[in-house]
Amino acid sequence: MHGVVIIGAAGRMGRRLVANIMASETLTLAGAVEYSGSPFIGQDAGIVAGCGEAGVKIIDSLEEALASGAEAVIDFATSGVIEAAQLAVRSNCAMVIGTTALTADDRAELKRLADEENGRIVAANNMSVGVNLLFKLVSEAAAFLGIDYNVEIVEMHHNKKLDAPSGTAVRLGEVVCEARKWQYDQAVKNGRAGMVGKRPAEEIGMHALRGGDVVGDHTVIFSAEGERLELSHRASSRDMFARGALLAVEYLLTAPNGLYDMQDVLNLK
């Protein structure tokens, strides 16, 4: 059994990660970390996740959690990700990052950790198997259909989501731009209001909806004269992200040092 540490173990995603690891036949929960001052510090991670006693207390020190013999760390947090990755790599642990809040500088540092410090890292905006297949299908559709097909991207998430558009929607926009050799910052139009004029051909409309408890819906629409193609993914449970993260851990346990994404994990490249 391979030990895994979960950062943000008491959060919505962290609880599902804990539950899925506890149900795994190959992975075991080696540590559970929360921010200093969290009301869950000292509680059993499995009890907090609602799946029975895990025998692992939630603590506020990643360094202490790594000392338990962990082989991998999973982090879906929106802050402290790079510091956590640096500590994990220097502790010879694989690192799986599911946050959508990485900057260009963050990704550069992750690449440096992989290249210069022998890190094994998977970083992806979305860990879902279905969403990563959607990325591939959208890339092929964008290239095949050509510029006569206008592209619109619509995403919807729960009312507590902080960022907009979602990281997944942004990645879908990047995929279209890569396929059509467009510049993302020039092509993407976030919403429309007022007399905006005729729609340019080299434009991607980006629309973010928020409400209720929606886990995550994404649709890419290709519209031309006489027809419309829609490629959609709808998430009904956070378990799909957790299962993808566990697949990423399994991948890194035998992978060479490097910075990977879920397309690598799923052999979709």
Helical residue percent?
25-40%
| Order of helical and strand elements | EHEHEHEHEHEHEHHEEEEHEH
Mean pLDDT score, rounded?
Answer: 95
Structural category = alpha/beta
Total beta strands: 12
Count of alpha and pi helical runs: 10
Characterization of the model:
The protein has 269 residues and is an alpha/beta fold. Helix 4 runs parallel beside helix 5 (104-116) and helix 6 (129-145) packs parallel to helix 7. The longest helix is centred in the middle third of the chain and has 17 residues, at 129-145. The two termini are 29 Å apart. The protein contains ten helices and twelve strands. Strands 3-2-1-4-5-6-12 form a seven-stranded parallel β-sheet, sandwiched between helices. A five-stranded mixed β-sheet has the order 8-9-7-10-11. 37% of the residues lie in helices and 25% in strands. The relative contact order is 0.15. The protein is elongated, with a radius of gyration of 20 Å.
